[in-house]
Amino acid sequence: MTQAGRQGSPRNGSGRSGKERSSQQRSPQGGNFSGGSRGGAGKRASGFGGDRPNRAPKPREERFIDPDLGGQPARGTEGTKAAKPSSRKPAARKPGAKKAAGTPGAPKPKPRTGAPGAAASRAFGSERFGQNLGPVRKPGRKKGPRGNVPQSELHDADGVRLQKVMASAGVASRRVCEEMIAEGRVEVDGQVVTELGVRVDPKTAVIHVDGLRIQLDENLVYMVFNKPKGVVSTMEDPEGRPCISDFLKSNKNTGERLFHVGRLDVATEGLLLLTNDGELANRLTHPSYEVPKTYLVQVRGPFPQGIGAQLKAGVELEDGMAAVDSFRLVDSTPGHVLIEVVLHSGKNRIVRRLFDAVGFPVQRLVRVKVGPIGLGDQRQGSIRNLGKQEVGHLLASVGL
């Protein structure tokens, strides 16, 4: 190819000189640098948008000076940003803000750490295991007037300081235990103690905190067993059927002589208490203490109205009248109805016999609660130890 042909080829800009090409690239109008597909390259060549028109800088705003602050800039006005007005209402404008504490409509104060009712000062409030059952509804004994009982009658010179005994039992830290004593929340042998220097014998003293009994005997065991269907409510079965001891083999308390509180028939599932505390077991099963038991009952549907009122009023059985304390329809599906009943009677197969008497035989029966202790999400066939707060509630429910 001749020199003239090379100068007129497309690779050389169709005969344009290098000065012409460079002047077109630096054109203030920002021409199409070798086509639209290379527009990005043109921006890079001109310094990331150097072909854009120059804009005048904004005038710098003066910072607002608040004369009430001694010539200092007001908060939120640093730079050019002004402070945003707060969306929160002033305390004086809140409903009931001007009312005295404790009067109707007054705002409730937020609980502080260490104050009565807070988790840090609740008995066994920092316990990791077990269920939080809240305050005791029916304490075993009433508190007496503060300071009327001579503390010297409870003092044992050879004993251990009361706050140390409480802290060792897991009630709370020693400092919080001292606050509990000073607030009159601790009872020793039925008498309120408010002095920090009182010493007690842990082996013989009966201590309550907020109505909760502190169990100081480490040899006593309290457990919950979620009994499956087909398991016999005995520790040993001569016929070789599955029994409670088969589920205790993997538990660390296998060396303890445990016994079950009450019974569940073979077909019934649910909560069964295990313990070696004979006094507690006797009270839980004695009819005079009327410990409530909650069951979930599945029967065939539909379930007509009036049957629940009939069960609450009482049904005549072969061994006398029997009734439920409460009746509640939980769920209803085609062909099945789930009912919750609560009763304190400990008669044999009482729930099944009651529903048989009203013409609705039980299809499935599960006990979910005994007194304050519930199954929760405990899986079937498992055994767990009760938490210390749960033990205190269980003892308080029968006056211990």
List keywords for this structure.
single chain; 400 residues; alpha+beta; 9-stranded mixed sheet; 4-stranded antiparallel sheet; 17 strands; 18% helix
Please characterize this protein's 3D structure.
β8 (259-261) and β9 (269-275) form a beta hairpin. The protein has helices at 3-7, 18-25, 39-45, 162-168, 174-182, 245-248, 278-285, 307-313, 350-357, 388-397, and strands at 160-161, 186-188, 191-193, 199-200, 207-209, 212-213, 222-227, 259-261, 269-275, 293-300, 315-317, 320-322, 326-333, 336-343, 364-370, 373-374, 383-385. It is α+β, with helices and mostly antiparallel strands. The radius of gyration is 40 Å and the shape is elongated. Mean pLDDT is 74; it is low at 1-15, 17-50, 64-71, 74-82, 111-120 and 139-148. Strands 7, 8, 9, 10, 13, 14, 15, 16 and 17 form a nine-stranded mixed beta sheet that branches. Strands 3-2-5-6 form a four-stranded antiparallel beta sheet. The chain has a two-stranded antiparallel sheet with strand order 1-4. The termini are far apart. It has ten helices and 17 strands. Helix content is 18%, strand content 18%.
